[in-house]
Amino acid sequence: xxxxxxxxxxxxxxxxxxxxxxxxxxxxxxxxxxxxxxxxxxxxxxxxxxxxxxxxxxxxxxxxxxxxxxxxxxxxxxxxxxxxxxxxxxxxxxxxxxxxxxxxxxxxxxxxxxxxxxxxxxxxxxxxxxxxxxxxxxxxxxxxxxxxxxxxxxxxxxxxxxxxxxxxxxx
Length: 171
Hints:
75% of the residues lie in helices and 0% in strands. The radius of gyration is 36 Å and the shape is elongated. The protein contains 7 helices and no strands. It has helices at 2-12, 17-24, 28-36, 43-52, 57-61, 72-121, 133-168. It folds into 2 domains: 2-61, 434 Repressor (Amino-terminal Domain); 72-168. With 171 residues, the protein is mostly helical. Helix 2 packs across helix 3 (28-36) and helix 6 packs antiparallel against helix 7.
């Protein structure tokens, strides 16, 4: 009776023999012997064992404990919950992908608009009078921005287009 109760309660708590042995400061073989009915714990260990298994000593010694069983209703409700969780994850993933796709579209649009703005300006700042310090600073900043943009924006545009293509790729 005691050996079955120890085994059933240990399994119900989700503990291995090794884990229970560590908690009780004994070796795993001792727990195995208790569960096989080859030996019994002494009174001090019996109290510690009852505490670790969240039960009373009387239940350990006499009352039978049923091994936890999973019935079909529990499995069905669990599978339904898992299905709902999976659907939620799929919706979140799709929303993330859609958001990334729209951000990449927006980046492409911004790059094209800025290219058109620079083309319309035709680098007019190069004709400014650079003897005026304020115009010299503003012209230098505009030239630096245009210089960097014209060299880096094509790579960003290509990367964005590739990203958009990958977000449409079927999984």
